[in-house]
Amino acid sequence: MRSGSRSPAGFHGAGTSRQRCRIMTEAAPVFRRLTLIGLGLIGSSLARAVRENRLADEIVACDRADILERVARLGIADHCEADPAQAVQNADAVILCVPVGAFADMAEKIAPHLAPGCILTDVGSTKQSVIRDVGPLLPPHVHFVPGHPLAGTEYSGPESGFSTLFRDRWTLLTPPPDTAEEAIEAVSALWRGCGAQVEIMEPAHHDRVLAIVSHLPHLIAFTICGTADDLADESRQQVLKFAASGFRDFTRIAASDPTMWRDIFLNNRDALLEMLARFTEDAQAMARAVRWGDEDYIVDKIERGRRIRRNLIEINQA
Ligand code: NAP
Prior knowledge:
Blueprint: E1 2-3, E2 9-11, H1 17-20, E3 21-23, E4 31-37, H2 41-52, E5 56-62, H3 65-74, E6 79-80, H4 84-87, E7 93-96, H5 103-110, E8 119-122, H6 128-134, E9 143-145, E10 147-149, E11 170-173, H7 181-193, E12 197-200, H8 203-230, H9 233-241, H10 246-254, H11 258-267, H12 269-291, H13 295-314
Parallel strand pairs: 4-5, 4-7, 5-6, 7-8, 8-9, 11-12
Antiparallel strand pairs: 1-12, 2-3, 10-11
NADP nicotinamide-adenine-dinucleotide phosphate binds next to α2, β10 and α11.
């Protein structure tokens, strides 16, 4: 793993990648024209953060026409363009912010229109699938720097975004080994400008880590809400009435966008199934301890959970 905390670079103008890069002061924009494709929670939060921190001279928003009307009303982009091929014209950076299942189709639409030296990056929650789906479609004159901000909420759409979403959160970058350093640096500078910390990671490692810290918890939340909903009518009403305990926290996670999570599960299948198998074994061990009254085992597991929570609070990630 490499740390992405280097000095920021600007990524401006036409020409070769080296000509297009220059060292900037911290306050200078990182990009001249930045195109965001998908203006939901993450894309609209980026638009707000980029604008607030002056990280690009111009922000182009690309999404469906009805979403763009809402983006225009919110005033968070300089231009709105529904046609992806038009939206990426002359951009020195493009960020894909649609669900990961739409990446291949989107990359096919924009690839022939990306300017020489343009950086293509993304915020997708799975990284091996993005490299598989997008990488082969890109012309050699485009820099590809896949990324993933570890920040979010259960809400969707352009109204749900906010400029501080990425502050004090991690963004993981998973660039292919031959990626130009200055392109990695420019994307890192953008995220640092949004208040995030940046780390470089292998894509396979990213997908395994995210399977356990994010994808499996969502799978469990969706499942437990389904199990509660399957109960007879009378019990279901009781579940909702007295949801104040742990169940309520699961319902918050389970309120997340169905398309996004379908795509994440299907695009991180192997790692998710591996973590689910491990979890199932551990859950069965806990069930056995409960059945046989193994107090030490039960207390040990609960204490471990408490320690993990304390650690999260200590490192400001709770
Ligand atoms: P979102 O709020 O649902 O926004 C997605 C946007 O993309 C919507 O405007 C949506 O329009 C548009 N879109 C969907 N399918 C499209 C398609 N095929 N072509 C063009 N536009 C399309 O989702 P989000 O939470 O911002 O997530 C966006 C990306 O960020 C995903 O790849 C996700 O994995 C990643 N991510 C999410 C989180 C999180 O916590 N939410 C955290 C980190 C990374 P419609 O509403 O009309 O479909």
